[in-house]
UniProtKB/TrEMBL annotation:
GO molecular function: acyltransferase activity, transferring groups other than amino-acyl groups
The entry's keywords: Acyltransferase, Transferase
Coiled coil: none
Entry keyword Chaperone: no
Protein name: N-acetyltransferase
Species whose genome carries this gene: Oscillatoriales cyanobacterium SpSt-418
All residue ranges annotated as the N-acetyltransferase domain in the record: 3-147
Top-level taxon in the UniProt lineage: Bacteria
Length: 147
């Protein structure tokens, strides 16, 4: 399976609809929030160092992952992984790993550390496999030093 990662500058809302519906059915509001915050311009991943990537297979968006300046950190040199989601049919095939590795590469020139928050044990194990370490910080469960 050949997956292509593309930076998102215009949100393909119709193409994200399957991800929104599936994630809501699974009890995750992150992708719905992504679309809502894009529409209201609350978060378009457009501050310095920020980015949003979509994973494409054929002509379908099968996953997304974003990078923000961490709104919970005092310094703007801390990045935050946001809104990682891969469609269930494409999980455990390396798509999430590709997305997070792209975020890490994108973050390195602009941030000294990446943070995230997850309450899911499977996700915690996934992030640990990418080098993230558990931390005990407010609004943060895992961290990766970039330099």
């Amino acid at each position: 399976m050949v997956v292509t990662l593309q930076p998102v500058t215009e949100l393909p809302e119709l193409l994200l609809l399957p991800l929104v519906e599936e994630s809501l059915a699974q009890g995750f509001r992150a992708i719905h929030r992504l679309v809502d915050e894009w529409q209201t311009e609350k978060n378009r991943f457009s501050k310095p160092g920020e980015a949003l990537f979509a994973a494409w297979f054929a002509d379908h968006v099968i996953g997304v992952c974003g990078l923000n300046q961490d709104p919970y950190a005092d310094a703007n040199q801390i990045g935050r992984i946001r809104r990682l989601y891969v469609q269930q049919a494409y999980r455990r095939q390396g798509v999430g790993r590709q997305l997070v590795e792209q975020i890490i590469c994108t973050a390195k020139p602009n941030f000294v550390e990446l943070r995230l928050r997850t309450t899911d044990a499977i996700a915690a194990h996934f992030y640990a496999s990418l080098g993230f370490h558990p931390v005990n910080l407010p609004n943060c469960t895992h961290s990766l030093k970039l330099r």
